[in-house]
Amino acid sequence: MRTILLTGGAGFVGSNLAIRLKSELAGQARVVALDNLKRRGSELNVPRLLKAGVEYVHGDVRQLADLEAVGEVGVIIDCSAEPSVLAGFSGSPRYVVDTNLNGTTNCLELARRYHADFIFLSTSRVYPTAAINGLNFRETGSRFEWTDDQKLPGASSRGLTEEFTLEGNRSLYGATKFCSELLVREYLEMYGLRGVINRCGVISGPWQMGKADQGVVVLWLASHLYGRPLNYIGFGGTGKQVRDALHVDDLYELVRLQLNDPGLHSGQVYNVGGGPQNSFSLLELTEACARVTGKRVPVGTVPENRPADIRCYLTDNSKIFRAAGWAPKKSGEQLLEETARWIRDNQEALRPILGS
Ligand SMILES: NC(=O)c1ccc[n+]([C@@H]2O[C@H](COP(=O)([O-])OP(=O)(O)OC[C@H]3O[C@@H](n4cnc5c(N)ncnc54)[C@H](O)[C@@H]3O)[C@@H](O)[C@H]2O)c1
To answer: How many CA within 13 A on the CB side of residue 48?
Structure first.
């Protein structure tokens, strides 16, 4: 039986992928989720994993020995990270670098030992902050929008392609993920491994432990459901900054395609996200949350930008669509409905994490 190891397997993405993989592959694969439970709330995913038949290993990607204890692996899906762009700004970069970069190197070492396939969850935040914020945009009543007259290649109203520049600063989070991408590519080339890099935009859905610096959709929904005030922070405080959002179920469909045909995707880098049709500004998200929850909360204004923040991000999924016919299927409305249902169904258990 092949072993699929998901690092960060008790996190939002890792737990959702692990549980779906185990239920689909049942007798054909051992699915192992390794996590050090650094993310607050990830402990709530452990009983879900065990109930689904996923093996949970309490381990740390910073320690190669913890990964080695899993034994022989056929596939590694690297979902462990300190995933906030603000990580390290108010203190030391140590944890971000040790986990996001050295941790990935340890995962690659394990892959090298067993000649395992490697799926790396990278981020749209490898694209530099100033270049993104320098793109031409227009302002409508409810959002900022990129225009089609861009000086840099790889940018249009349809989003960013993989051709967009990689020159410039990108936060410690983005930098550690970008360095990891380089190492993934070197390992594939040097040791003849198969692997793929998915540069994901905002991902969301049930079991995301959204917080002020990461997981905006859940933060917004939970604040409506628990009656907690919010703030429009940055870009003048008007709430017009835009993101696209990908339902974690759609990411799962992509991972399945990549697991089924590792040769086709090996060595590729894909931008992966909700795309323009699944995008929202914070103002629009507030209205959508009020619709879905039937509640309104006060939203204040903080005009100053937070470090490394961006005005807009939209994913151009054309490359992965051409390669595999993959495109997101779940709408933004479905994402909000399903996520709100999850919070309502688990309101008391989630209160200490999402409600305070
Ligand atoms: N959620 C998003 O919007 C998004 C967007 C782009 C990319 N990604 C990437 O997807 C992956 C999964 O992100 P997520 O949203 O599930 O985040 P998450 O914080 O929910 O999950 C990450 C998990 O890694 C664990 N972890 C942290 N440090 C660890 C360590 N040293 N050893 C072992 N485990 C450790 C955490 O406890 C957590 O459970 C990350 O690599 C992230 O960079 C996420």
So the answer is: 20
